[in-house]
Specification:
Blueprint: H1 3-22, H2 34-59, H3 80-95, H4 98-108, H5 113-120, H6 124-147
């Protein structure tokens, strides 16, 4: 895995572990020391996430350019209004509960509801319902930001 992606995968690992713990996904058996059980469990999460990242890297198309802005017509968010909208969205996203933020970010990265449902042992329809609520919460947060 490229060094530039290690921090991202580490963050994803921490988020996935936190969500799993909140949902009761970490269980310690009597015959395993709790610290060792946690270490093995986190290692498993990190292993699966890094394998998934390697799989996604094969499908990515990266273009290396000395001057990346030459590839586009203009710099991203050079418009002041676009920068303000982006900041408002990021602040609103930051105020969401962690599970809603994680769900929105996962779908933005291209994960399907079915893929998100499997580890949680719920249906894809339930994930879609959670996604609708998360999007509504994001809109509410964004409206509050705009009013403030």
């Amino acid at each position: 895995m490229p060094r530039r992606e290690v921090d991202d995968v580490t963050s994803e690992c921490i988020i996935a572990a936190w969500i799993a713990i909140q949902r009761g996904g970490f269980k310690v058996h009597a015959w395993v020391e709790p610290t060792e059980a946690l270490r093995r469990w986190l290692y498993g999460i990190a292993w699966r996430l890094s394998a998934h990242e390697r799989g996604r890297a094969r499908h990515r198309r990266e273009v290396l350019a000395a001057e990346p802005w030459e590839l586009g017509a203009e710099e991203p968010a050079s418009d002041t209004q676009a920068q303000l909208r982006a900041r408002t969205l990021l602040r609103a996203l930051d105020r969401l509960p962690p599970h809603q933020r994680a769900l929105l970010l996962a779908t933005a990265e291209g994960h399907t509801p079915a893929a998100l449902a499997a580890p949680q042992r719920i249906t894809a329809r339930a994930v879609l319902h959670q996604l609708v609520r998360a999007r509504a919460a994001l809109l509410d947060e964004g409206d509050e930001e705009g009013d403030g």
